[in-house]
Amino acid sequence: MSIKPNPSHLAWHETMKLHEITASQTNSLIGFKMSIHNIKDKPLHALYAEAIRDIEQNLRELLPYFSEAPTGTRSLSDSELTAFYAGQLLGYAKSSILGYASAITETATPSLKETFHKQMHRAIELHTKVFNYMLERGLYPAYNLKELLENDVKNANKALGM
């Protein structure tokens, strides 16, 4: 018996991936928009501008899917900047863990593999600390999918409007 996809909403796992990609791209967009005015090298400035345009397009394409989530958003005040910086750090830790995990599977030299393993463990510890920091301060409603997705939409729209 095959199961047909429910066209009335996204699946839970794809909703979570939608959240992760939207949150990551939103954080990058805010950071790039905050930085571009400091980039003096013209070719690098042009690359930043291109990245900003691409991410804005990505977010515009992703935002309509939030209305299809199985459940159902932040100007940059001091508390919002804190949330942004914490999210940026969480994203760094998460990316580091994934990068080290991939590198470990490609490493043949035992001492290098051990070094990667040790560094990945530090990244995992950092991720845990940052996650707990955000959770305790209400910056990452990890257990409230509706609020999590509403924050994604609000943050992406704010980044698009910067």
Automatic annotation (TrEMBL):
InterPro entries: Ferritin-like, Spore_coat_CotF-like. The keyword Transit peptide does not apply. GO terms for biological process: sporulation resulting in formation of a cellular spore. The keyword DNA damage does not apply. It is found in: Spore coat. Keywords: Capsid protein, Sporulation, Virion. PANTHER family: SPORE COAT PROTEIN F-LIKE PROTEIN YHCQ. Belongs to the CotF family. This is Spore coat protein.
